[in-house]
From TrEMBL, chain A:
Protein name stated in the entry: Glutamate transport system substrate-binding protein
Family: Belongs to the bacterial solute-binding protein 3 family.
Species in which this protein is naturally found: Streptomyces capillispiralis
GO biological process: amino acid transport
Record-annotated Solute-binding protein family 3/N-terminal domain positions: 40-265
Keywords annotated in UniProt: Signal, Transport
A cellular component term, taken from the record's GO annotations: outer membrane-bounded periplasmic space
Cleaved signal peptide residues: 1-22
InterPro entries: Bact_solute-bind_prot3, SBP_3_CS, Solute-binding_3/MltF_N
Gene3D superfamilies from the UniProt entry: Periplasmic binding protein-like II
SMART domains membership: PBPb
Highest taxon of the lineage: Bacteria
Length: 280, 225
């Protein structure tokens, strides 16, 4: 008898799940949504980059990308509780926009020509540079020759490729699955430096468990213009987001967000970029 | 459509797959040797050896390969300083560590395949060998294992195909094989499906002949009973 109850219950749950996914298919017009009674907006972010886009253990989200996206959503007419965060990993960003899974993406999305063929970009909203993160007491100061250094970066990332092709073809590059694994190698002394965008490095260095252990060298090895990705051809949304970004810089919210997320890392960030001004 | 492939010269597409082939060959030979030793331990008359073989297989077989490979680099190399004679050459170090991890993992499966082969050899064979005065090592190497190997070419082909595909996990510690090049291409080109298809095809080209040749061999060499 008990078994039959369980079966009935699970069938009900299954049916519910089916209907729930069925109404996820339309443009978010579910009647049973938040207390605001309005629509939801889906925004793509990273879940694993402290300081930029991080899913906290408690289920909340933090980071500069998250703050920018929240501000932009507000300008588009969505309160914070109407935002549905979606994880968009690097390799999945273009497809998520093309399929319409998310309205826009703010996930350390560097504007490049190849990507601009597939998606439209608003912004840029932050100019980052590839840099090195070293131990606090390391004596790497200016642009030293990286060729005799041991570096660590994430497998296949633009930063790793830059090292192999341009900056230091002879350097020993250790490629790892995540930045956290690189930090472990840096702590144990297996590598001299961790290299990627300074914004990401600052986010890691600002984390509680690493506070005061590492420093940014301040090399400007590349220009990474972080933009907000929007579905190709959706010019209306691009314009709205650009207006929102301008407003964010104008009312100093942009500076506050930078300070809140990168403050502890002594990150000398670039001033807010002008909309459409992509630094090659 | 495929013109972006020629933009990659270090490594080229073929070069990356060549590393995949090298990983497969070295790990294949190593795991065949180590797996055979393990199988010998599991059927040996010494309880300690039997215990070790059983414990090894049951532990290693149940750890995800990613965990093993990442441990070789994060644990062995970074923390314990086991750098396989390539302390200052990360490329070589990563390759050797990956081969080590793949051997450790694949050997457990080779051992189990072989043990099932040993079970196909009639008990009478081993008893007859004992009766003419051969010792355990001789019984195993001269009588039992040759027949066992011929019986398990099919299952071993499966293990080899799985190994070929498992080499992609080496990308996690930065070995420049096919999967790592795929990650780089996806990062730059924003063409996930097309690039994925190219690499999937590459692996089929590698594994399909392996399966066909070994399938034919297993039919030819099977012990007719």
């Amino acid at each position: 008898m008990k078994l039959r109850k369980v079966t009935a219950a699970s069938a009900a749950v299954f049916a519910l799940a089916l209907t729930a996914t069925a109404c996820g298919g339309d443009d978010g017009n579910d009647s049973g949504s938040s207390s605001g009674g309005g629509d939801k907006i889906k925004i793509g972010i990273k879940y694993d980059q402290p300081g930029l886009g991080l899913k906290e253990p408690g289920g909340s989200f933090s980071g500069f990308d998250v703050d920018v996206a929240t501000y932009v959503a507000k300008e588009l007419g969505y309160e914070a509780d109407q935002i549905e965060w979606v994880e968009t990993k690097s390799a999945d960003r273009e497809n998520a926009l093309a399929r319409g899974d998310v309205k826009f993406i703010a996930a350390t999305y560097s504007i490049t020509d190849e990507r601009a063929e597939k998606v439209d970009f608003a912004g840029p909203y932050l100019l980052a540079h590839q840099d090195l993160l070293v131990k606090k007491d390391a004596d790497v100061t200016e642009a030293t020759d990286l060729n005799d250094k041991k570096l660590c970066s994430v497998t296949g990332s633009t930063s790793a490729q830059n090292v192999k092709k341009d900056f230091a073809p002879k350097a020993q590059l250790r490629e790892r699955g995540t930045y956290s694994e690189c930090i472990a190698a840096l702590q144990s002394g297996a590598v001299d430096a961790l290299t990627t965008d300074d914004s990401i490095l600052a986010g890691f260095a600002a984390q509680d468990q690493y506070k005061g252990q590492f420093k940014l060298v301040g090399l400007k090895l590349s220009n990474e213009n972080y933009g907000i990705g929007v579905k190709k051809g959706d010019t209306e949304t691009v314009n709205k987001i650009n207006d929102a970004l301008e407003k964010m810089v104008g009312d100093k919210s942009w500076d506050k967000a930078v300070e809140a997320n990168f403050g502890p890392a002594e990150y000398n960030n670039e001033p807010a970029p002008k909309i459409g001004n992509i630094v090659k | 459509m495929f013109d972006f492939i020629s933009d990659y010269d270090d490594p080229t597409l073929l070069g990356a797959f060549w590393v995949t082939v090298q990983l497969t060959v070295f790990s294949g030979i190593g795991s065949l040797v180590w797996g055979t030793l393990l199988a010998a331990m599991r059927v040996s008359p010494v309880p300690l050896m039997r215990w070790f073989g059983t414990a090894y297989v049951n532990i290693v077989r149940n750890i995800p390969l990613t965990v093993i490979i990442v441990f070789t680099s994060l644990g062995l190399a970074d923390i314990f300083g086991v750098t396989m004679g390539a302390r200052d050459d990360f490329e070589l170090q990563g390759f050797r560590l990956a081969v080590l991890g793949l051997i450790a993992y694949t050997a457990a499966f080779v051992c189990e395949a072989l043990r099932s082969g040993i079970n196909t050899v009639p008990v009478g064979q081993a008893e007859a060998a004992r009766a003419i005065g051969l010792n355990f090592t001789q019984v195993l190497t001269l009588i039992v294992l040759p027949q066992a190997f011929r019986a398990v070419i099919g299952p071993l082909a499966n293990v080899l195909i799985a190994l070929t595909k498992n080499t992609t996990v080496a990308a996690a510690i930065g070995v420049a094989e096919a999967a790592l090049l795929m990650k780089e291409m996806i990062e730059n080109e924003a063409q996930t499906l097309l690039i994925g298809a190219v690499f999937a095809f590459g692996f089929v080209v590698l594994t399909l002949p392996t399966g066909l040749i070994l399938g034919w061999l297993s039919k030819r060499l099977a012990v007719k009973r």
